[in-house]
Each structure stands twice: as structure tokens, then as C-alpha cells.
Amino acid sequence: MIKYFMPILEIKLVPDPILRKRAAPLEMVTEEIKSILNDMAETMYDAPGIGLAANQVGILKRLIVMDCSKEEEDPNLIKMINPEIVYSSEEKEELEEGCLSIPDHKSIVIRPSKVTVKFLTVDCKTETLEAEGLLAACVQHEIDHLNGVLFVDHISRLKRDIILRKVKKQIRENDK
Ligand code: GNR
Ligand code: NI
Fold this sequence. Notes:
Layout: H1 31-46, E1 51-53, E2 63-66, E3 78-88, E4 92-99, E5 102-112, E6 114-120, E7 126-132, H2 133-146, H3 157-175
Antiparallel strand pairs: 1-2, 2-3, 3-6, 4-5, 6-7
Nickel (II) ion binds next to helix 2.
């Protein structure tokens, strides 16, 4: 496998069982981990998406990348190792979410409107991020992925079953 020439990773789609697994924490930040995070960022921008969790590219490690900057703003790539929510507001917010692993389906999800996340940087420093708005929804969505949870798990069972059934059918038809 000539890894250097293939930085864009394949995004796993439902019902791939890896999306339902819990990713393991990292004990060390190695060059390999930094390289995976770079490939994940490239994959996210290429998709395009505003976040990506390692499970989505078949890697069961607690790694996420995000960039929730608006088109007119400068890029703001955030890489997190072992992210952990240390505060969630009582106040909730509704936001329309999509997922690269559940293509072409969006749904309103209700989550805490503000969260504080503790994580390791690629320089192995502990940092915290206070997030609200889209960034708050995104970081919760990504940490969910690391726990095998998908945004459809936050909506009604009826809506979830409809979306998952449609996606599976689409994928079957694309494979024909
Ligand atoms: O691209 C994405 N958009 C998005 C919109 C609202 C809340 C969360 C997200 S994350 C998603 C990319 C993705 O699937 N990340 O796991
Ligand atoms: Ni997702």
C-alpha cells in the first residue's frame, strides 16, 4: 500500500459495524497519529464536511477533526485527541444535522447548546474548547461517533428507521 499517495480515506457508510464501535483512547501522540489526523482533515475538506471522527474512516482511535468556519472566514482546523465533554449546558438547542456516513439525509437534533471539551493537541498539550452554536453541535456529533453513536439515535425511532432503510436501499442500488 503506497500510503503517501492516498491521503483521502474511504468514508464508511451505515450499516458498517465499525460505526457502532467504541474507539480506544490514545496513550501516546506518535508521528503516525499526526499523519492520520492530517489525512482525516484532507478527507473532511474533500467530502466536504465540517467534522470527521476516526471511526468514519475505519480507525478505532479517539481522534476527531473539525472546521466549522464559514465560507467567508479563514479556515479553522481543529484536531482533537481523546476529546472529553467536561461541561454541558442545561439549555438545549435544535440544529439540523447531517452525517457523511449517512449520505443525503438531514434531521433536526436537540443537544446541549454549550459544551466545554477537554482534549490533547498534536503537541500533546491539554487544552479546553468552549463551544456553542454549530461548533457545539459538531463536537458533540463527533464525540458521539467515537462512542458508536449516530445523530439518528437522537431522533424518533420512526424517523431513524425510515432514514436508515432509505440509505441502505440507496447503497444497494449504487452497488448494482
Ligand atoms: O458535515 C457535517 N455537518 C454537520 C452539520 C451539523 C452537525 C454536525 C455535522 S458533522 C457532519 C460531518 C460528519 O458526519 N461528521 O461526523
Ligand atoms: Ni457524522
